[in-house]
Amino acid sequence: DVKVTQSSRYLVKRTGEKVFLECVQDMDHENMFWYRQDPGLGLRLIYFSYDVKMKEKGDIPEGYSVSREKKERFSLILESASTNQTSMYLCASSSGSDIQYFGAGTRLSVL
Amino acid sequence: AQSVTQPDIHITVSEGASLELRCNYSYGATPYLFWYVQSPGQGLQLLLKYFSGDTLVQGIKGFEAEFKRSQSSFNLRKPSVHWSDAAEYFCAVAYYSSASKIIFGSGTRLSIRP
What we know:
heterodimer; A: 111 residues; mainly beta; 7-stranded mixed beta sheet; 4-stranded antiparallel beta sheet; 11 strands; 0% helix; B: 114 residues; 6-stranded mixed beta sheet; globular
């Protein structure tokens, strides 16, 4: 069965902290994505990666970076967390132009 | 610019009633089309997809959707809703030129009246 695992369901951090959100997929997918989800705004793409060590900016990359050292793992990094980054973060993976499979999400609160 | 519009933010229907959730997209060519569902506190699960062929597609949980090119629409339907269908529903589109990227609508929250 398809599986995308996000390391934390809930996370509470302080302003200015460096935050790592981890995502692992077991389907050998080449594409991986990070979205943030806010009420009334749907899902907005932060970054995506179509291969190891490759990354592209999505629609809202400011304040975020990513790392993809291995095919199965895609990390989202908040270099200096701010309160406006409080949100639900969703990771997804896909193969080619096929559907995206999503993790359960990480609800991040920045205090 | 490519976009997806779900005009209804929140819909309430009675259990057993029929349902239609609206979705419109803007793009010149034929896109890939998806409907996802998100239960509270969960990630997104694919309900159905349209890539080509028959414009009426069947999905899981008794849902179907119809692609209408002339109206740039991909509305989701279910003949009889169940209380467990209460969730948020997202329409999404992907394009041949960038088929790995998907654009999501803002979502429609569905509530079920007992």
